[in-house]
Amino acid sequence: MTTSPDRDYWEDRALTHGRLAGGYLDPWNETYEQPLRWAAFRRICPIVPGLRVLDVGCGTGRWSVRMADMGAQVLGADISARMIEMAEPHPRVEYQVAAAHELDCPDRYFDVVVSVTVLQHITDPGELQRALHNLRRMLKDAGRFFVLEYSPLRTLPSQELTYMRYRTQKQWIELMAKEGFQLRSSTGIRFIGRRAYSLWRRLRGARPAPTSSSASSAVATGVSGGEAAGSSGGEATLLRLTQAMERGISRVAFLRQRSDLHAYVFVKAASPP
Description:
Elements: H1 5-17, H2 27-44, E1 52-56, H3 62-69, E2 73-78, H4 81-86, E3 93-97, E4 110-116, H5 125-138, E5 139-150, H6 169-178, E6 181-188, H7 193-204, H8 212-221, H9 225-228, H10 233-250, E7 261-268
Helix pairs in contact: 2-8, 2-10, 7-10
């Protein structure tokens, strides 16, 4: 295990923010979006009992545990030792401190590889190439690679962040094709619902964010954020409605590309490039 700017960033973030470090630091954004991410995952990459799953960049293991609860045998790996120390134990989950390019599992071992906003945080191009090559090696020939990343249709933010590399949907698909993956399916995650909900909260005056424990509980159980955080009945209703609107839009073929957060399922190409 080697040091790197990416590893240092996530270790410092975990030290500062605890279990919130693996997602949005604003718990309202976290509890709003996580159920939408999970719904997209279950729709395009269903998990059945007995699958071997690699959850790369697992953070504190919330997705690992969910997939294990569905009957999968999961290896959760994360670049941050502090994240793994905070990970939730589960009898069908094994945790390991490792970056994607450091994992040393057998060839064609996993039925599914899951990467949730992980690849965009591998900031060194050479390391990203090694990571994708390694993940492809460990994925079965008939396996699926679920990737969720910030990926707008056309326009990227003008300022590059030190801990993230922006790519459009086309750029992600081209990058994956270059590394030996073919796109099987994709879907958008968020559209106008979160903006509408955020605007409503600003207009009414935002209440204090829930504690990290309540936010983590909401995300782990899949409960809508407003209900889990103890928000008013009206706010919880609005939250459910806007989340339902997002899920509805994601099912419309000519609209789903409009999302700036996209989920993809890739499979191995017939032969590596």
